[in-house]
Amino acid sequence: MKRAGAVLVTGVICVSVVLEIVYRHHGHPVFWWQATPVFDLVYGTAGCLALVLGAKWLGHAWLQRDHLYTDEDEPA
């Protein structure tokens, strides 16, 4: 199952890169990143990873409780 997911992700990235190169807007870029072919793909992936890893770190560091956060010796 992991192999199928990796193949799918690789295929989507390859198709995205090819489509971005083929269907490029040939107008005058205002900023340097608008002239870079796969900048949006890399920037979006990095932003997504930062959000996911940041939320995961926040959950482990602050939001989640320990596995045994109550005293087991006390009767209910």
Describe the overall structure.
The protein has one domain. The protein is 61% helix and 0% strand. With 76 residues, it is mainly alpha-helical. The longest helix has 25 residues. The chain has 2 helices and no strands. The mean pLDDT is 84. The radius of gyration is 22 Å and the shape is elongated.
Give a quick set of tags describing it.
single chain; about 80 residues; mainly alpha; 2 helices; about 0% strand; elongated
Q: Helices, strands, pairings?
A:
Elements (H helix, E strand, L loop, with lengths): L1 H21 L16 H25 L13
Query: Quaternary state, please?
Result: single chain
Amino- and carboxy-terminal Cα gap: 44 Å
Tell me the number of structural domains.
Answer: 1
**Structural shape:** elongated
- Structural category is mainly alpha
Strand content: under 5%
Radius of gyration: 22 Å
Order of helices and strands: HH
* pLDDT < 50 stretches: none
Overall pLDDT score = 84
Q: Say how many strands there are.
A: 0
Q: Percent of residues in helical segments?
A: 55-70%
How many alpha or pi helices?
2
Largest sheet: none
